Amino acid sequence: MKTIKPMGPVEWGLLLILSVLWGASFFFGKVALAELQPFSIVLCRVALAAVALNLDSAVERGCRVQLLGSNAIVQKRGLTRWVS
Fold this sequence. Notes:
The protein is an alpha+beta fold. The chain has one domain. It has helices at 9-35, 38-60, and strands at 64-68, 71-76, 79-83. The relative contact order is 0.06.
């Protein structure tokens, strides 16, 4: 049977950081709802998630991504493609 080690200071610190980040999302969501329309918040969250997932996917496929202003160049195997 495997014994369970007690949590040390590092684990407690990581748990504290996680709880602060998790709780802050609810706080800032409430603040954002007071200033913006719900549709705007949803649109921004989905857009940021789409950009993050596309960049992660490009990195996983071995692409080199260069950000140029509002456009990005994705290069893979000698092919260049503009992403707006």
